[in-house]
Amino acid sequence: LIDLIKTCVAVVFQLRESYGNVYSLFMGSKPAVVINGFKAMKEAIVTKSTDFAGRPQDLFINDVTQRKGVVMADFGPMWREHRRFALMTLRNFGLGKKSMEERILEEIQYIIETLEKNNNTVSPQVMFHNAGSNIICQVLFGTRYEYDDETIKLIVRCFTEITKMINSPWAMLYDSVPLIRHLPLPFNKAFEDMEIFLNIARHLVNEHKRTRVSGEPRDFVDCYLDELENRDDDSTFSEEQLTRITFDLYVAGTDTNSEDVIFCSYFFDPSERCQHEIDRVLVGKDRVTFEDRLAMPYTQAVIHEIQRIANTVPLSAFHCTTKDTELMGYSLPKGTMIIQNLNSVLREEGQWKFPHEFNPENFLNEQGEFIKPEAFMPFSTGPRMCLGEGLARMELFLITVILLRKFEFIWPEDAGEPDFTPVFGVTLTPKPYTMKVRLRSDQ
Ligand code: HEM
Q1: CA of 379 to the centre of ligand 1 (A)
Q2: 0.95 cut: is pTM over it?
Q3: Distance CA 292, CA 296 (A)
Q4: Spatial contact of 200 and 155, defined as CB atoms under 8 Å apart
């Protein structure tokens, strides 16, 4: 399966060499147009933004998500209202007394405890996956789970299996041969897993309904219930939509988390230079804040460069044209499936000083100040751009700085060369690996 997906992604990348920045291909039986390079991406996703802001509605994933939530919802009032609400709520002021930053800092304490306990080796992927999952659970449900909690294990199992199935040949078969959709075939597992997740979410929502105080939200679910109270009956807000949006935010917020990728970078040289910068800026301070990033241009550049190279969501989420439109002189009818090749922009010659190598200088000007080129779009761009960018940025910065300040991460001598071959899913992640960890001697 991984080989099949890997081949598809590789083919999308290579076809650009032969066919240019805009070309079409068939995904199973469905035609799609692939957009490559900054110029074409900007014309489509930014300049003609709403023309390209739909989502395909006739895929396996749409039946699994029932065209609800926000990620796969089509361009229209339901998507627009929920996107606006989620963005507002994820900004600090929407989440009650405890700020987003505090929620992240609390979870980092658990990471530190785990690292101190295991004062030897650690599997960054497992640990950071759990931490990412807990941060989003804190935001959504105001609760965190022990790393071996049965509920969290069940949630993770469900969504891992759903994403696996969405990327499998079974999904392609489901899309191409409608007649088989009611047969008892393996793709039904994704519908069952979705139901299990929704039942957990329904249970948590009911608990919130029992314990909430109207107008004093503790978390995302409370904010949504407040909103529901104030809306008319014909609004797009509903309890069903609440459970769907929690699924979307949970999946989008956990699977894309690239903290683990940061650890790959420790084999590149800059971690020591980051540590010097961090030590200098934080001298005499107990606590790191997100604000401190403004005084850490090099660390910021390293984090951004890791994201550029790691490129965790290489083909974004599929878009769809909302009306007949044009791109770079080609006519595209309404309903055309659109694939954004983000990788082609993140490594495009002419956009980067060092497009093909890992080099934080890509984000530094001659004065050593942090700059963000327009072609930096791992979160995509335009009206459908990732709505968790703020949360992801904060997590990446705080986790990197706090851990680098306290620990050294060492590749075990007996483990051979690190294998950077990425594993393809909806996202790209490095192959599983373990590292040695020890407290920094000078801390
Ligand atoms: C490093 C971490 C992340 C990366 C690289 C990433 C990347 C992306 C990308 C490429 C898209 C598709 C945008 C498009 O279709 O044009 C997306 C969509 C989305 N992401 Fe993220 N994401 C990250 C973290 C998060 C987090 C933490 C959350 C949740 C809080 C989140 C929530 C969403 C949602 C809800 C959408 C759908 C937006 C819409 O359709 O309007 N993401 N993300």
Answers
A1: 6
A2: no
A3: 7
A4: yes
